[in-house]
Structures
1.
Amino acid sequence: MKTEDLKVPAFKAGLFDLDGVIVDTEPQYTEFWGAMGRIYHPEIPDFAYRIKGQTLTQITERWIDPEYVPELVRRLDEFESRMVFEFIPGAWDYLEKLKSAGVKTALVTSSNAVKMENVWRERPALRDLFDEVFTSEHFKASKPDPDCYLLGSKVFGYKPADCVVFEDSFAGVAAGRAAGCKVVGLSTTNPADALAPLCDIVLPDFRGII
């Protein structure tokens, strides 16, 4: 895949992750989950990075003692209510470009509906740039399982090969690749050279394809 394929664009649907792809929130989440790791798993120094791309349900079921789940959820809800949702450079303009070109767009995020209400409250116009929005409540298996991106392509009636996934996490690019989609890696969270073998192309942001 070349940047020209994204500029034209030469695909039927774009399937976008949210954090680290559309909004620059990953540093905030790294700080939050780093703090939670120190509280609940001090023996795992890289806890914040191990859970990236996973849904809250997946995190709590695998990593958190049921006794502490309500406390963690309360902490997360409070944190997300105060988050700042700044856009990744060029993201808004690129979504507008796809919309003008008649390309279908879907937001495919591991975030839950409560988190998305915070996003829509702060950035209400963003909702209009997506034809469909899928949150953690819409699929059973989390990334790197391809379920979410298979659902994204299916809702538009397209083959996965006709869709492009935009992701920043290793779990996310693995999900896109397993679904059979083309995968664009955004090096906003992980190094470009680490993402490159797993993606069709890696970009620092969207400015080069507007």
2.
Amino acid sequence: MKTTRSILTASRMLIAILILGSTLSSCKKDEVKQNTETGNIATALSQFKSAPQAFTVSGTTGGSVTGAEGLSLTFPANAFITLSGTAVTGTVNISLTEINTKGKMVLNNAPTTSQGKFLISGGEFLIEAEQNGSKLKLAPGKRVTAFKPVTNGDAAMGFFTGKTEADGSLDWTEEGQGQQVAVKDTFNGGSTGVAGYAYNLDSLGWSNFDRFYSSANNTTFKVQTPIEYVDSNTAVYVVFQNESTAARLGYFDAAAHTFEVDHSNNIPIGTQILVVAIAERNGQMYWSSTATTIIANQVLPITFTAKTKAEIDQLANAL
């Protein structure tokens, strides 16, 4: 009987261990599934991009175009070559995208940062050229004059060119640092007496009238998202309330589940900001918006609400 009881006891213990192991395994699987939920936020954000404006100029004599938001571009004669270096004649198709609001900066994934440093934008724009479906570039020595009329312009405004990062966002580099430029006239009255920002571009692509955000009394700032929202399916932005600045928090700390601009992440205490985020999970879009005033070493938790694309468009454009 004693042996029988021992066998029964051992059997019960084995069953209990198996049940516990099964339960722990199930919990572990659930946690892994929850923490590794993926998505492609770059693809999701692409549906919000502004539709480019279309123009034509002569590849031989050049020409001028003016965008709906006021940016004018003047192309010189014989301005274009193919990517292989062949001179271009005939009609050239020009594509222009103008970004002048914080809402468009967010929707176009075109934040105003340069290697993690905040920028104040005087206007972003994208110029592309093509002929018969093939992309073109500027011929050596040719310059495109870009002029944007403004009132109460900032005489400290400079000029930056943009590069698309791995997450689909833009990072900006100031012209004149390792890049040859012909003319820089950042606040120009012009012969017509119209004040504005002017620059002679030596290449097509993304450009930005910008200056660095001057700040003091800085602190770190991080945004903490729910566990389902990670860098693969979520884009988080800090929108300055009183400046034309919208920075993407592109660095994700998986252990702390926080987003930040970069490891330095300096932002002035007392700055009034709006944290906005767009996410896509299992085909559903989500939106988050939280107003705050920066305090020392702040970690701000945010939550998300399911929205349609049209609703996100409207919310972002109201920023």
3.
Amino acid sequence: MDLLLQRGRDALANGDTTEAIGHLTALTDHAPDFAEGWNARATAFFQAGQFGPSIADIARTLTLNPRHFGAMAGLGAIYEELDNPEKALAIYRAALAIHPNLGGVSEAVERLEAEVAGTDL
């Protein structure tokens, strides 16, 4: 598991999302109960612009680990990309309820609160 996860992360760091998805798919096939494998593949799908598969993998991550604040933050980012600030804001708030100091998420909440309220920044 560790080797496949590291290979996937290394491929992502090198910008090769296709290779990353391949390694991380092998990981999820061999260790379907390992939440971090699903989360890492969700990240690879996100970076490849494949939001549907990314959301599906985040759902699996959160089924296995409902307190996975990193997966929540990723889901919030997807909903921002999909121009759904209300849903992104709700998800970011849920992540902050678990990890109040989650980097960048507090700022995203402030920005989205202003956007949802109709205030120009």
4.
Amino acid sequence: MRAVVTGGAGFIGSSLVHAMLGARTQVTVIDDLSTGSMDNVNPTAPFRRLDVTAPGLADAVGAARPDVVIHLAAQVSVPVSISDPAFDWHVNVEGTRAVAEAAVAAGAGRVVFASSAAVYGEPVELPLTEESPKSPAVPYGLSKLAAEVVLAEVLRPAGVDFACLRFANVFGPRQKAEGEGGVVAQFATRMARGERPVIYGSGQQTRDFIYVADVAGACVAAAEFEGALALSGPDGPAYNISTGRKTTVNMLAEGLRVAMRHPGDFDRAPAREGDVEESVLAPDKAAEVFGWRASVELETGLRASAAWFLQQR
């Protein structure tokens, strides 16, 4: 299989490229390095430094002759989406349109898109399923939901299969504190420096934390699935990628403190704009359709994350 991974120099993308190369897939990485790093780029994967909204995107994708395009490149900062929603929309919606059109022109058979649990907003029911109401609380969630619609508009008429993977709160090595769901990176970075991490709000907010290797595995499973992802089950091509288990921020902070052997306490600050109180996603559809389930326990993922962040000191 030949694949193009946009955002392949980033936190999730670099883990995905590593997993795909291990499965003997030919992978081309496209990344503008605005948030990714060349240190993350696998040296065996051809690399193009390119913005997904740039004019040369179609040529770069076409040259790779991909069977599948996995689109991870995005504007992932919730605060940035609030302060500059036009930029957020440009990258996440128009960038997705450009990637979809490039995939069609290149003759790709499938596109796998990194969507987000942010499309749901404040939940009215738990756990969230793919059919749950969508009411994004921040522009980032709105742009991800709009990007799902754009994919359908571009890919369905062309007969290209696709999947929108709605990631829960992803964490792991190489994560930056500024991105969506970056609370583990925020805590770990401060702990590694001997500083006091900050918990916003009560800390009783719940999240569905999923380790990055599990997310990479979901992308690989969707890319390699031999059936029609876009036609499988209710709500079409959307799939929650999650553990189905909720963890409070306080519990997460304590688990990470143990993993990093951090002796200090935590500072407290008011809740931030756009933060939902509770979130947990049901992953059953992904299991039923393309056989994926998360397998890394939270404690195991926190230990691996802690080891990486401590090495960065």
